[in-house]
Design goal:
The longest helix has 26 residues. The protein has 265 residues and is α/β, with parallel strands linked by helices. The chain is built from ten helices and 13 strands.
Length: 265
Amino acid sequence: MSSKLIKTAAIIALISLFTIALVGCGGSDKSVVDKAKEKGKIVMGTSADFEPFEYIEIDEGKDGEIVGFDVDIAKAIAEKIGVELEIKDMDFGGLISALSSGKLDFVAAGMTADDERRKSVDFSDPYYEAYQVIIKSKGNEEIMSKDDLKDKVIGVQLGTTGDEVASEEEIGAKEVKRFDKATAAILALNNGKIDAVVLDQAVAEANVAQNEDSLELLDEPLSEEVYSLAAPKGDEKLVEIMNQVLNELKESGEYDQLLKKYGLE
């Protein structure tokens, strides 16, 4: 075979391999929605220590069930698609990477739609406005405002907006201790291992209500933010369905009912 024919054959072979690779990659571009319909289920990732948005309910007939505001929205999304909802509970800090790697189909976890996260995932329309607050030991008059956090040891949940806020130079914390679970930060505060906790307002209120003899909340907001649902990067079909569901819940009045149900009015 001449060198010209050999070169031609090699080029054809390379083109064939490239075509096969493109076909193979095409399968990975399929929306989560289509994959969920094939499997009969859609997998939601969350961190179930964020009451009232997602938490484990220990009750008669519901021992160990994950419930909450976000869970009810996720159920509506699964129903819209026509599949079952499966919930995977993990540390908040690992949710984005698990979604990006395909271990999760979407995330509902009281997650703030910030620019850094948008590099890895896409977000639905905002569905809840929130802000960060300070939790302190009851009667602790050394901490009366955010200015008093200077040179204090602050507990936060790893990877959250509270983590970012407490780490700001303006706050001037002596140390920011990061915990995988918000409840672990609350426990550390109760045990005197840290001076304060910075946490989302609704979640902070729920935790203080459970520890009203030992903890109290400062009214001063540290930052404002909005929660959104997270989808794999580029999955426009799933984001569209998420937004449809959110709009339908609001138009039907069910969204307001959920706010009331979980004390978020």
